[in-house]
């Protein structure tokens, strides 16, 4: 989520990256390297998530996930920066 | 991804420090509903009520005490109208539904003339239950010794009749139980002297004239055992105060602390709420943009419901208007239903009625839910049923499956529940820890909100009316 925000992309969330709302959840479709194991805090929120993977990928919290290399993800509601 | 987003890219909200709300927010439905393009049912606006029962703590023993549990059985359940079965589950003559609750067992039987009768589910010979599960029979024959009654309850056959000289055949009919219908739902009452169901429901019957359920069918029922009191389970579904913390993904979408709750001092047997969609929670500060409100729906719920990825606000369009536009399109494209003339209150929002003591029904098309709660053998357990009643066009589909789950089994994996399953799982995550928590209380009471949790006090007061007599 921070990576996206750093290039101006707005990523839906409510809790601002504290693994408390689950709104930032993202489906990871592909990754060049294995993803790190979710922390206890992330896993507990993942267990409560109301969204499921739709493309056969893996659900993760975008606010907690540090992508080791490059990854392809799916997330409805993500928006590019404003065009002035 | 779109190019016309004009909000900033920073995170707004801090759930660790949500704004304290010292003043009651406006009740949002009262603001929003009159502005909707298609007027809502008159009752949602005209019958809005400011009355709430007196504020007082609720004694936890009402949830945990075996004595209170027994008093409910003897004085409340024995005299109230309980939801038995939906009409569509017993459509044909000879269809039989077995309804068990608090030690009572009743069979609800479709008659040859289309009417419905209910009988105590007990053979007059040696007491065996005549039926043990939903079935279809031409007559009511006890499996034990074959005593047989007609569907109408008249005695038909006695084995070795010469050995039962004491039985007067004409008077050996099955004892009937009161059964009456409202809106396609059959309710039973163990009290022969109870008021009629419609009298019991009071002005709710009139309020419901604005909703047509003739085009609904039961698509699924999930029976889930819970290790908590039946009232603790029901409490989780009659207020929206819990939405921000228990269903946080909905916080951008619904004004959880500004729901409209209606109850009336002279109507002890029902209450209701109306919860708006397309307006953010007051727990979020600063207020999110309309595009963010819309995005929360398209990012969380819509993909689960319809596979629709996202939507953009048109020029000057509010999130609620956009949600309506998307919903009308989705219903048309995915389900072949024309909902273009349906008010937002039914298409988007959630209205929920509680029929005392244990039946919750949502008239909304978007949340077509029915819940029923029944006590377990002790105050510490219950059976919670969730059903979906979906709209259909053309021939009525056959009723859906009944899925039975034990304590701890996940709700989220029932495909027929769709997006509702994971939400109900979030509720289970609270309910499985509530009975122990109540018993560990240091105060012995629950402090419920004056307005937002008034429905809890309201039905507790009704319980007290029954227990006092």
From TrEMBL, chain A:
An annotated Gene Ontology molecular function: iron-sulfur cluster binding
Pfam families named in the record: Fer2 (PF00111)
TM helices/strands, residue ranges: none
Classification via SUPFAM superfamilies: 2Fe-2S ferredoxin-like
Start and end residues of each 2Fe-2S ferredoxin-type domain: 5-67
Classification via InterPro entries: 2Fe-2S_ferredoxin-like_sf (IPR036010), 2Fe-2S_ferredoxin-type (IPR001041), Beta-grasp_dom_sf (IPR012675)
Protein name per UniProt: 2Fe-2S ferredoxin-type domain-containing protein
Organism: Sphingobium baderi LL03
TrEMBL record, chain B:
Cofactor(s) it depends on: Fe cation
The keyword Oxidoreductase is assigned to this record: yes
Region (Disordered): 1-24
Organism: Sphingobium baderi LL03
Keywords: 2Fe-2S, Iron, Iron-sulfur, Metal-binding, Oxidoreductase
A Pfam family reported for this protein in Swiss-Prot or TrEMBL: Ring_hydroxyl_A
InterPro entries: Rieske_2Fe-2S, Rieske_2Fe-2S_sf, Ring_hydroxy_dOase_asu_C_dom, Rng_hydr_dOase-A
Domain of life, per lineage: Bacteria
Keyword Phosphoprotein assigned: no
Protein name per UniProt: Rieske domain-containing protein
Residue span, Rieske domain: 81-188
GO molecular-function terms, A-Z: 2 iron, 2 sulfur cluster binding; iron ion binding; oxidoreductase activity
């Amino acid at each position: 989520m921070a990576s996206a925000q750093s290039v101006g992309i707005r990523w839906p969330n409510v809790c601002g990256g504290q693994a408390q709302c689950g709104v930032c959840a993202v489906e990871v479709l592909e990754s060049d390297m294995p993803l790190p194991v979710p922390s206890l805090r992330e896993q507990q929120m993942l267990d409560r998530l109301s969204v499921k993977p739709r493309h056969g990928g893996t659900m993760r919290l975008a606010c907690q996930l540090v992508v080791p290399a490059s990854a392809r993800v799916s997330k409805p509601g993500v928006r590019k920066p404003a065009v002035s | 991804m779109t190019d016309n987003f004009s909000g900033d890219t920073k995170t707004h909200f801090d759930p660790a420090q949500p704004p304290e709300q010292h003043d009651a927010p406006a009740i949002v439905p009262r603001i929003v509903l009159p502005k909707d393009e298609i007027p809502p049912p008159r009752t949602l606006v005209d019958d809005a009520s400011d009355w709430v029962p007196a504020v007082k703590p609720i004694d936890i023993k009402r949830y945990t005490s075996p004595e209170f549990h027994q008093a409910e059985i003897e004085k409340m359940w024995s005299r109230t109208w309980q939801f038995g079965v939906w009409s569509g589950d017993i459509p044909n003559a000879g269809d039989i539904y077995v309804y068990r609750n608090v030690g009572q067992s009743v069979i609800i039987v479709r008659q040859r003339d289309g009417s419905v009768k209910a009988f105590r589910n007990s053979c007059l010979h040696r007491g065996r239950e005549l039926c043990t599960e939903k079935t279809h029979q031409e007559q009511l024959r006890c499996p034990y010794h074959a005593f047989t009654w007609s569907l109408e309850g008249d005695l038909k056959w006695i084995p070795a009749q010469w050995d039962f000289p004491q039985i007067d055949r004409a008077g050996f009919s099955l004892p009937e139980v009161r059964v009456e219908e409202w809106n396609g739902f059959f309710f039973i009452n163990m009290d022969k002297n109870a008021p009629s169901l419609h009298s019991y429901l009071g002005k709710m019957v009139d309020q419901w004239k604005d909703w047509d359920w003739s085009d609904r069918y039961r698509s699924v029922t999930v029976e889930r055992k819970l290790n908590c009191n039946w009232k603790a389970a029901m409490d989780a579904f009659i207020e929206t105060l819990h939405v921000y913390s228990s269903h946080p993904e909905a916080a951008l979408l619904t004004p959880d602390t500004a729901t409209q709750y209606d109850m009336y001092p002279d109507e002890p047997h029902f209450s209701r709420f109306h919860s708006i969609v397309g307006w953010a929670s007051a727990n979020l500060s600063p207020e999110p943009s309309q595009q963010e409100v819309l995005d929360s729906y398209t990012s969380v719920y819509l993909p689960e419901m319809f596979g629709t990825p996202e939507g953009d606000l048109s020029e000057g369009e509010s999130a609620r208007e956009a949600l309506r536009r998307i919903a009308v399109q989705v219903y048309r494209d995915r389900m072949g239903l024309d909902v273009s003339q349906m008010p937002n209150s039914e298409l988007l929002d959630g209205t929920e009625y509680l029929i005392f003591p244990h039946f919750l029904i949502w008239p909304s098309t978007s949340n077509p839910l029915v819940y029923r709660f029944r006590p377990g053998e002790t105050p510490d357990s219950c059976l919670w049923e969730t059903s979906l009643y979906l709209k259909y066009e053309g021939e009525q589909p056959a009723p859906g499956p009944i899925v039975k789950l034990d304590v701890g089994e996940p709700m989220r994996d029932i495909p027929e529940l769709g997006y509702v399953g994971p939400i109900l799982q979030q509720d289970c995550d609270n309910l499985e820890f509530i009975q122990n928590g109540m018993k560990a209380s240091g105060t012995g009471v629950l402090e419920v909100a004056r307005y937002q949790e008034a429905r809890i006090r309201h039905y507790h007061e009704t319980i007290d009316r029954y227990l006092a007599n």
